[in-house]
Design a protein that fits this description.
Strand content: 25-35%
Number of strands: 11
Distance between the termini: 81 Å
Structural class: alpha+beta
Number of helices: 2
Amino acid sequence: MTNALSTANTAGLAALQTLRTGLQQVRATIPSSVGGTPLLRLLKDGSWVAGAEDTTLGAGTEVILNPMSFQSGYSCWTNRAAGQGKNELMGEEMWGIGQGKPPASSLPQHVDPRTQAPCQWKDAMAVDLKVLDGAMSGQQVQYKVTSVGGLRVLSALLDAVMAKLDTGSEYICPIVALSSDSYNHQSYGRTYVPVMSVVGWANMNGHEEDGAPVAVDTKVKETAPEPEPQTDAPAGRRRRV
């Protein structure tokens, strides 16, 4: 009887562990923006959008970055060939400031449920920003990336914040203008990459380095279609009043 109960308990625990693993995989596929912060994205045509409705943020839109929100981690996506269907997020692990980042080899392995191919963990970064003008003025968004271009942009902004800290300045929140650049990829053709140009600095209380508060434009502007992004530097910064 004891052996039978032990066997039953072991089987029950195994079933619960299988269920837990399955639930973790489901939870990992839920976008972080559900019921939370809208995601900021750069589309394949070089335009910036945010939120579930893909609200357009025109080239030159300014956002202010919260350096305390930097996260680093990994995302695990399927890698399907053409005709195999849309890629799926199989897992995501992110750590904030001071939490450290373990090696990817310590994370659970996933396989594509459709093709059974192993899915690789890729480096990821994320940060929260507040939009300062345009249709989403005053709203907080999150920019989360795994692409080489996106990682380079956030790494450069992180380095800029660290350099600012080294000077002893309290103005450690970069104000950046959104734009994009492009290059011709051998396989994919014209490919757009994110550009975030630092146009000012503010402190954690929302005051700019020149002493003026960061103004949030509450007017929704009618924007004409944006021209194709150029490699030139973005236009001069709008005057804040």
